Amino acid sequence: MNINTSSEKLLEISLDCLVISVFENELAEDKLFSEVDRKLDGIFKTLVKEKEITGSKGELTLVHTYDKIKPKRILVVGLGSQVSFTSTVASKISADAIRYIKRKNFSTIGTVIHGSARYKDLTKELCISLVEGMILGLYSFDKHPQKTNDAQDKEPFNIIIGGFQKANKKTIEEAINYAKITSEATIFARDLVNQPANLMTPTLLDKESELLATRVSLEYKTFDKNEMETLKMGALLGVSKGSHEEPKFITLKYMGNPEFPDKIVGLIGKGITFDSGGISIKPAANMSAMKGDMGGAAAVIASIGAVAQLGIKINVMALIPATENLPGGSATKPGDVLTALNGKTIEVENTDAEGRLILADAISYANQLHLSPLIDIATLTGAIGVALGSVSMGLFSNDDTLSAELIASSESTGEKMWRMPLWDEYKDQNKSTVADIKNTGGRQAGSITAAQFLHEFVEETKWAHLDIASVFMSSKTNGIYSKGATGQPVRTIIKLLSMDEHSLFS
């Protein structure tokens, strides 16, 4: 997709289709809509009268211009009510419109920034939504084409964004660049998650990380099994014992603010490249979806890569414990006791509660490096989906400011999160009679007790845990999400780390 800007009037550019957007009940007040209507001899007024154009949210109406203006067609997009309009609505509408345009095989497209005529102070944010919507709305996982036609190169879209004041040109171009990078990072995360597990092993995930590090100039280091044994990562190694695939502990580092080398944000991503449940094996139905149990790792890798591309003035280190969780003759058994890197002993009551085990070692290692704040991202529990459905991820944190900044960032991207409790009463469910802690607190409050388990290893560090098991996959195409991996919460993490003013290090 080629995206450019133009200060020229869009009505004076030869286009296959010009996309304009209108608010419900405010059609006559939109200057571009009224100007096109005049040039098309009042066709819009007729369509409005017949209620074929209402401006309702998501409404798409295609009108041919018959050479009365240079664009061959006008696609009128409804923005819905002003009251409910947000940047998230703008990105969804953008995605829906571009998919419609793709089905029509138009290639040269002009568009306004949806909603910016009304909300001029949000022009940059709305431009980001427009571009992210277009790029992510066209995403499909096509690494393994099943049909000859799928493998052929398709003519790229040529997008021209116009209808803005010349004084805003630099702002618009900056927004386009930002949105391209965040969208490409999200797509990178989606591709990693959508890959079959035999093509995204810990070794291959490590290779992808190394290639990214080379491409965007990150510091890269990976610990192999022997080095993990030296570090005494007993929890991670315990999970890996059932698989013939070697575990990896991947680290990526970006020093965008070398003046403060001791202030480094830690991002930790759960990297279970396939989760059978181990000895506590999962049901066979839908187990193939467990190729995506490294969604947290994918999000962390993609996020730090985007931060480096954007040149954000912040220091970040990503830690990715990666392994498969399989049954086998040497696999960890229910009832076994493992010793984590920090010396804590863990009773493994259920081998399918493995994500928190590998994160325990990663968090302990982050503490040794004095990374703070820590944000771990993990497809940790099915229980979070019971609590929040497929609408929101769960946020757990020991710090109100960090939580507030994450939520504020998520509100701007539309990657919803809801803060869950971490009350001390839930700790009792994780008590063990044979070790310091056990790895599951039972069915009740499952996502909370999992977070409390991680909290035991965080110690005093400022920390947030994002349980993305409820949102890392989409069962259907909707807005910016295609069926399959969503890439959440990549855009939220990038937004958080690119905030002009924040209290991450206070």
What does it look like?
The protein is an alpha/beta fold and 506 residues long. The protein has two domains: 2-162, Leucine Aminopeptidase, subunit E, domain 1; 184-497, Aminopeptidase (3-Layer(aba) Sandwich), CATH 3.40.630. 35% of the residues lie in helices and 18% in strands. It has 15 helices and 20 strands. It has helices at 31-39, 43-49, 87-103, 123-137, 148-151, 169-194, 202-216, 225-231, 234-240, 295-310, 355-368, 383-388, 400-413, 446-458, 490-497; strands at 2-5, 17-22, 60-64, 73-78, 108-111, 158-161, 219-223, 248-255, 265-269, 271-275, 315-325, 337-339, 345-347, 374-378, 393-397, 417-419, 437-438, 463-467, 473-474, 484-485. Strands 7, 8, 9, 10, 11, 14, 15, 16 and 18 form a nine-stranded mixed sheet that branches. A six-stranded mixed sheet has the order 1-6-5-2-4-3, with helices on one face. A three-stranded mixed sheet has the order 12-13-17. A hairpin with an 8-residue loop joins strand 3 and strand 4. Helix 3 (87-103) runs parallel beside helix 4 (123-137). The chain starts with a strand and ends in a 9-residue tail after the last helix.
